[in-house]
Amino acid sequence: MTTAIYPGSFDPLTFGHVDIIERSARLFDHVIVSILTNAQKAPLFTVDERIEIMREILTPRFENVEVDVFHGLLVDYATQKKAQVIVRGIRAVTDYEYEFQMALMNRRLKPDIETVFMMPAENYSYLSSRLVKEIAELGGSVAGLVPESVERRLKQRFKKAFEKEKL
Ligand code: PNS
Q1: Does the pLDDT of residue 35 top 70, yes or no?
Q2: Contact residues of ligand 1, CB 6 A cut-off
Q3: How far is the C-alpha of 167 from the C-alpha of 154, rounded, in Å?
Q4: Do residues 58 and 107 make contact, with C-beta atoms less than 8 angstroms apart?
Q5: pTM summary value
Q6: Which atom of ligand 1 is closest in space to residue 41's alpha carbon?
Q7: 135 within domain boundaries
Q8: Which residue's CA lies nearest to atom 14 of ligand 1?
Q9: pLDDT digits (tens, 9 = 90+) for 78-118
Q10: Which of 24, 35, 54, 133 has the fewest Cβ atoms within 10 angstroms?
Q11: Domains identified in the chain, total number
Q12: Is the per-residue pLDDT at 157 higher than 80?
């Protein structure tokens, strides 16, 4: 039984993430998609909102995928969950340096946990949560980049911001 952790901020979940989750769900027996609760970052969606969004989208679609949260060291969390694998998505060469550093550091901390890199479909290779937020904030369309419920929530969130600005 192989358990894999797919960790990240998922602020918000994009089709690039869903693509990696789909590939992981095919490869591993159990996949835990886990949201980092990082007090230092100022997220757009709260952890509870992200859990709700991700469970709504992932639970009906993948029976071996679970959504969870973690804080502290990823390798400690992976050990606690008895996971053998950490999954990370790699889009372009620009991701490589940071991911390489993190994978080797995690290996140093916990040598028996393996990091597995996966490439999303090429049409998602330029997609990131950061760009999605920026486009949505500036009134652009994120259709086809994020699931519909994320699109709806982004519109609501930024509509509120626009309304506040007008006051
Ligand atoms: O989606 P992100 O923000 O690129 O995910 C980064 C994440 C959550 C994988 C990384 O920040 C992480 O693992 N943080 C937990 C703290 C930790 O273990 N740090 C040491 C990494 S070598």
Answers
A1: yes
A2: 7-9, 36, 73-74, 102, 105-106
A3: 20
A4: no
A5: 0.95
A6: 3
A7: no
A8: 74
A9: 999 999 999 999 998 889 999 999 999 999 999 999 999 99
A10: 133
A11: 1
A12: yes
Which residue in 1, 11, 16 sits closest to 90, CA to CA?
Answer: 16
pLDDT of 46-81, one tens digit each?
Answer: 999 999 999 999 999 999 999 999 999 999 999 999
Q: Is residue 167 part of a domain?
A: no
Residue 135 has pLDDT above 70, yes or no: yes
- E strand or H helix at 94: helix 93-109
The catalytically annotated residue of 34, 50, 129, 133 is 129
Ligand 1 centre distance from Cα of residue 166 (Å)? 37
**Percent residues over pLDDT 90 in the chain:** 90
CATH number for the domain harbouring residue 58:
3.40.50.620
Percent of the chain residues past pLDDT 70, beyond the cut: 95
Other CB atoms within a 10 A radius of the CB of residue 44 amount to 19
Nearest atom (ligand 1) to Cα of 10: 1
> Which residue segment(s) compose the domain that 53 sits in?
3-125
In 10 A of CB 13, how many CB atoms? 27
Give the distance (Å) from ligand 1 centre to CA of residue 92: 18
Domain annotation covers residue 55: yes
**Could you count the other beta carbons within 10 Å of the beta carbon of residue 98?**
11
Using the mean position of ligand 1's atoms as its centre, give its distance from the Cα of residue 163 in Å.
35
